[in-house]
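INFO batch 0412 | record 1 of 1 | parsing
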Amino acid sequence: MYCKNCGKKLPDNARFCDRCNMSVRKKESRMELIEELKEERLARRKAQAVEERLKKIKKIKNKRRKMIASVICAVIALGIISGAGVYIYYAATSEFNQPLEDVPEITDVPKTDKPTAAASAGNATKKPEINSDGYIVTRLGELSFAYPQSFAPDNGNKDMQLSMKDNSGDATLTGNREFTDKDAKSIMKTYADSKGGKVEESLAGDKRYTVTVVNGGKVYHRTGMVREGTETYYEIVYPSSSARKSVYESNITYMDSYFKDE
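INFO prediction complete | emitting tokens
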């Protein structure tokens, strides 16, 4: 059954359209028509009241945001002015203002090719963030992602945003973002067809999918999220006969649950 007013598809036993609130049932009597018209009018008034309430709340929130932004700008400006005043005062009264001839000459500075400790600390690689479950936390585009500590960067695939290899086994882990005009179900089917073999698990909604394919002695698992014309996904590949198969399966369960939009 379809609404004659807005065209939305409705259940056969529906009395009103949940989009436009119009009655969709045939009227058996004048009194029934009057009662349903009253209900429609009441529903429209309630919807209008809710809409006006939301507009009022939005207006109040916008006013608060502007007020908070004004206060923050004022505090920042006051801090800058105070800092400039302190700097000018000390610059005019400290030893930085003494005549140049009174500054002692610096001689016999030892030459060295080795970087200082401060420079070495500045060039040190940033340590990865590890969560309470022992997984390394990162991001793929706008999505949160976590992977096992046994995986280390692998430069073999530079086209990927994430390219890792398991140091304790022979699994690979990649992740990337790609433009797409397809939905999650279509992407999942295309991926499964490209790998061939047996699909052991597949699940797809409007925006998210996950699929596991076994073929050629390898297990291919991929989970992706589609939003606003962009697909973000990760893929793990490992031998089906690997001694760490149960470990990888446990890792996949965790990574799938962590792979989300916060």
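INFO post-check: The helical segments are 30-93, 117-122, 184-195, 245-258.
INFO record closed
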